Amino acid sequence: MTPEHKAGFISIIGKPNVGKSTLMNALVGERLSIVSSKAQTTRHRILGMLNGEHKGTEYQIVYSDTPGVLLPKYELHKSMMQFVKSSLEDADVVLYVTDVFDEFEDLDFLTNWKDFTETPILVLLNKIDLVSMEKLEEKVAYWQGIFPGKPIIPISALESVHLDQIFSHLMEHLPVHPPFFDKEELTDKPEKFFASEIVREKIFLNYKKEIPYSCEVVVTSFKEEPTILRIATEIYVERVSQRAIIIGHKGENIKKVGIQAREDLEKFFGKKVFLEQFVKVEPDWRAKTDKLRSFGYSLD
């Protein structure tokens, strides 16, 4: 008799900056998603696979990190929300991530989905390491009122506190199903995607205000040689003034981004990396559907 195998899609959703990407990385055990103190850093839906065995049952958990739920201002935002909606449609379990400072907002499709979905929901109250027990109890009661009858699990994604409780709940709800992906795969994204995300993360870390949100990173060349990986990228901005800021005086700013990105790229790919960066101006690219499609965003 063939041993039982469970597999399913687990969607991680919530507002920007509540710790979804930190949670995703902690659950998968690998750094797949950008982590930044700035909101709206995740723009795509990123899958991360966790394979193993639990009490004699093999499993494949397919975690789905999604952009933070917001009211769209650009075509880019509409695409980001489309990733969220598609994630909800195929979810076997939804992890609704909030934090101890967050409050629920009536954000159209999310409210409708919450009230009518039959998909199991776990509410994860993140960043519990930052508040007192009294404050935590208040927030648990608050979110229990928003999601009546749903499990509320206080966690710290950064400190990996109570993440085992999430796993226990998931194994209860995970359907019996063969694996969706090869057991050797860690993610559905190609290596080029992570190269661009690592560069984009360094832009978020090094620039302020609107600059990081106006940037898109495209890998134009990805050549793997025996001893070195050669990567060429184009950084798109919306205005000439932004290009000057990205480059900096005598190229100091872009050089710093390159040094930091190359260091992480070498850790990620496990070999030496030669990184080229070019900065280009594409006016209002966040509002141009044709440009967004060429960058890999879904607008359907």
Largest sheet: 6 strands, mixed
Helix percent band:
25-40%
The overall pLDDT, averaged over residues, is: 87
Whole-angstrom Rg: 20 Å
Low-confidence parts lasting 5 or more residues at pLDDT below 50?
Answer: none
Order of helices and strands: EHEEHEHEHEHHEEHHEH
Shape: globular
Determine the strand fraction and express it as a percent band: 15-25%
Going across the biggest sheet, name each strand in turn.
2-3-1-4-5-6
Q: Structural class per helix/strand content?
A: alpha/beta
Q: Alpha-carbon distance between the termini?
A: 44 Å
Number of helices: 9
Q: How many DSSP-defined strands?
A: 9
General description of the model:
By secondary structure, the chain is α/β, with parallel strands linked by helices. Helices cover 35% and strands 24% of the residues. The protein has 9 helices and 9 strands. The strands form 2 sheets. It has a 6-stranded mixed β-sheet with strand order 2-3-1-4-5-6, with helices on both faces. A 3-stranded mixed β-sheet has the order 7-8-9. Helix 6 (191-206) crosses helix 8. The chain is globular and about 55 Å long.
Secondary structure elements and pairings:
Layout: E1 5-13, H1 20-28, E2 46-54, E3 57-65, H2 75-89, E4 93-99, H3 109-116, E5 121-126, H4 133-146, E6 152-154, H5 163-173, H6 191-206, E7 216-224, E8 228-237, H7 240-247, H8 252-269, E9 272-281, H9 289-294
Parallel strand pairs: 1-3, 1-4, 4-5, 5-6, 8-9
Antiparallel strand pairs: 2-3, 7-8
